[in-house]
Specification:
Layout (H helix, E strand, L loop, with lengths): L5 E18 L5 E20 L4 E5 L13 H8 L7 E6 L10 H15 L17 H6 L3 E5 L3 E4 L6 E6 L6 H6 L26 H8 L1 H10 L7 E4 L6 E5 L2 H14 L4 E6 L4
Length: about 280
């Protein structure tokens, strides 16, 4: 097997808080969220080939090697970029439809490889047009994210160890956003600044998940029951849930308790501030 010419890690993210600010005229929502990258990542490699191709491997590879609405293809089609004669292999270690941002992270990793291939088009791309989380992953740093994901402000978040779990139930991002009732959200627009405050807590999607997905509601209550947990939340629009701890052994003990109660669920201990 030939060695890949270019390799990039493609980390997952966790939303430490997420506030839905308003709905825009174009149908998108303005958000305010604190995002930290974690040491759970896909692996993206590129090898010279006779034609452009994308292959998936790993635990969370799609059936028949195809993702519906493939974000990788969108990079090239939306901006009329000529596809390179490379085979991109993406090892999928991050659960999909989980709120962990794997697709956007994959897109950002491929953009970094295109830069190495001297694709000057990457200098003029509006990354948020590919996906809301793509600018965050292109910046590749913990951030306060505002707008539709197009505003990223570097942040230094505390070190956490997370027990991260994946419910059996997947969450459709589109369905979650369609269920948002902006009248239920009473966010003070004066708080939508570049500074994080005590008002930045929780995840507004939890109310929707609680209503639409009983399993997520049950798991959130369980995750909040650990004795040393700092906080537990849904990440993104779901479906993954996490509990944050300040000690790794506390997170590992919580993992053992969780696996004993829910042996069929995917779960792992991960951490931020690892880059």
């Amino acid at each position: 097997m030939m060695q890949a010419e270019y390799t990039e890690i493609s980390p997952a993210k966790i939303n430490l808080f997420l506030k839905i600010i308003s709905k825009r005229d174009d149908g998108y929502h303005n958000l305010r969220t604190g995002v930290t990258l974690i040491n759970l990542y896909d692996e993206v490699s590129a090898q010279k080939s006779s034609e452009f191709n994308v292959k998936y491997t790993g635990e969370f590879a799609p059936p028949n090697n195809v993702f519906k609405d493939c974000i990788v293809e969108k990079i090239f089609s939306k901006f009329n970029i000529v596809k390179p004669q490379y085979c991109f292999t993406i090892k999928k270690n991050i659960p999909v439809q989980s709120g962990l941002g794997s697709a956007s992270s994959n897109a950002a990793a491929i953009i970094r490889i295109l830069k190495k291939l001297d694709y000057t088009e990457t200098k003029t791309i509006n990354f948020s047009e590919i996906g809301a989380d793509v600018p965050l992953f292109v910046a590749n740093q913990d951030s306060l994210v505002r707008g539709i994901g197009d505003i990223t402000i570097k942040q230094l978040f505390p070190k956490y160890y997370f027990l991260l779990i994946k419910p059996i139930q997947n969450c459709s991002t589109k369905e979650m956003y369609n269920a948002v009732d902006i009248n239920d959200l009473k966010f003070d627009l004066n708080l939508d600044t570049d500074e994080i405050s005590e008002f930045d807590m929780g995840n507004d999607f939890e109310v929707i998940a609680d209503r639409k997905y009983p399993e997520i509601s049950t798991l959130l209550k369980f995750m909040r029951s650990f004795s040393e947990v700092i906080f537990s939340r849904l990440t993104g629009s779901g479906s993954c849930i996490y509990s944050a701890f300040d000690k790794k052994d506390s997170a590992e003990k919580a993992l053992d308790i969780f696996k004993e109660r829910f042996p069929d669920h995917w779960a792992a201990v991960v951490e931020n501030n690892f880059l």
